[in-house]
Amino acid sequence: MEFFYRDIVKILQMNHAISISLRQVKRYLKEMNLARRKDYSNIRSVFNFVHTQVTSYGPAHGYRWMYQKCKRHGFKIKRDHISLMLNTIDPEGVYLRARRRLKRREYFSRGPNFCWHLDSYDKLKRYGLCINACIDGFSRKIIWLKVGRSSSNPKVIARYFIDAIEEHRGHPYSMRGDMGTENGLVAVMQTLFAGDEVTIPFIYGKSTMNTRIESWWGILRKKCCQVWISAMKGLQERGQFSGDKLDINLIQFCCMQLLQVPFFSICRNILPSNMSSWQ
């Protein structure tokens, strides 16, 4: 077991009635050739790990983040050594990070309704409030933003899609979503609507790569959802929400419409001209 130096001082004083200063503890440990941080990992193994991470993720990780990654993977090494490795492996990335000039990926869309991005927001799902949204990639217009009893049922998401097509009097050229089963019917309908003219009518990918809708979730949490997340956590901490079916049904009955009202307001007030920070 590893103790901090201050912990050693307190343990000696409380358990053994030995009063000793922090400086004395450090001196005694040094004389006995003892240290809290020893047995560092093999440098070559750590270097290979860092090289793999840089190759996989590019210059996005600084030495602090890479140091934490090494710790999580069981490597024991000094942070200065990580910095030196990054300077050797990726000097250009280190230079760009120092100047805050990292080149971010750019999003491109040919025009309105070229690609709709859809996804589900699960921060309130445990309380029975299941949120699903779709956004136009070019104009960043909110196509739909709905809260319901389920965001995993393909029929529910398909209903949102059909309502949006009726409202906008047309369908998008393509759509993007994750591999979840809830998008199955939407993908089938979009494929039928697009016909043979579109090579890939529905693009599957990870949610983290669905940049337009992921950016929107950050905006939604700041504008609305954080208050609800805090309120629901408060109910749970006070023992007023146990997570059983009855509690979930009560939350849905009392709060679903209350949450949908600010969603309508957000969709009207947050226009593309007000979202330049998304770029």
Automatic annotation (TrEMBL):
Source domain of life: Eukaryota
Signal sequence bounds: none
Segments forming domain Integrase core: 110-243
InterPro entries: Integrase_dom_put, RNaseH-like_sf
One Pfam family this sequence matches: rva_4
Name this polypeptide is given: Integrase core domain-containing protein
